[in-house]
Amino acid sequence: MDYRACSDTELLKMLLGEKAAEKALTGGVVRMFLEERQYDEIHPKIGAARELMRRALLQQLSSGSALTSPAAVRDYLRLSIAGKEHEIFSVIWLDAQHRVIGAEDLFRGTLSQTSVYPREVVKHALKANAAAVIFAHNHPSGVAQPSQSDELLTRNLKEALALIEVKVLDHFIVAGNQALSFAERGLL
Fold first, then answer.
1. Which of 47, 100, 158, 166 could form a disulfide with 62 if both were Cys (CB 3.0 to 4.6 A apart)?
2. Does the structural domain 85-188 have CATH classification 3.40.47.10?
């Protein structure tokens, strides 16, 4: 079998088995993948399965008619940036109907901070031809509360992107297995 021709979901099913993969994709074992990173050393398939789940969730988000599942966004972000030992600032690019165009980690920082440059975010938004964005960054400390600088950064990015008619839909802070939404908190 040519594994290069398989989808990420098919690869996950081959790696974990049909039932375990289905359970994983419906959120049944997402917690294990998020919280038990020490199992990666014991069983190398766990790390591979985590990466395949992240890709499969991104495919699910991308294939939908519009971004309608906040839970899937949270799961994707938690699989992507939770548990990192350094801060990562990520962006999910969306079209005018809020369908996922793509996702990328734009900036990498240290244990406690990341430098984010609005000019670079605007350049990437134009390159992706995005109409809307969802921001996310992790807090390696495990505390999902936004700092004043997180709130200021979000306001600055929102203002910069408004100049090119790109809407900021949300900004998530991911810490451990938590993903705090600025929109749900009324911070946007």
1. 100
2. no
Q: Give the pLDDT confidence of 24-73 residue by residue, as tens digits.
A: 666 544 544 554 444 445 456 666 666 666 676 666 666 664 455 677 78
Q: Where do the H-state alpha helices sit in 82-185?
A: 118-128, 148-162, 182-185
Q: Among residues 91, 62, 57, 93, which one has the least CA distance to residue 76?
A: 57
pLDDT, greater one: 106 or 65: 106
The tokens for 90 are 């990520």
Cα-atom radius of gyration of the chain, to the nearest Å? 17
Q: In 10 A of CB 111, how many CB atoms?
A: 11
Could you tell me the residue ranges of all domains in the chain? Answer: 1-63, 85-188
Q: Which two tokens stand for residue 88?
A: 């990562």
Q: For residue 108, give the H/E element and its range.
A: strand 100-108
Closest Cα partner for 91 from 113, 73, 112? 73
Helix axes 44-63, 18-25, angle to 10 degrees: 60
Locate 159 and state its tokens: 């203002």
Strand order in the sheet with 88-94: 100-108, 88-94, 132-138, 167-175, 178-181
DSSP assignment, residue 132? E
The enclosing H or E element of 16 equals helix 8-16
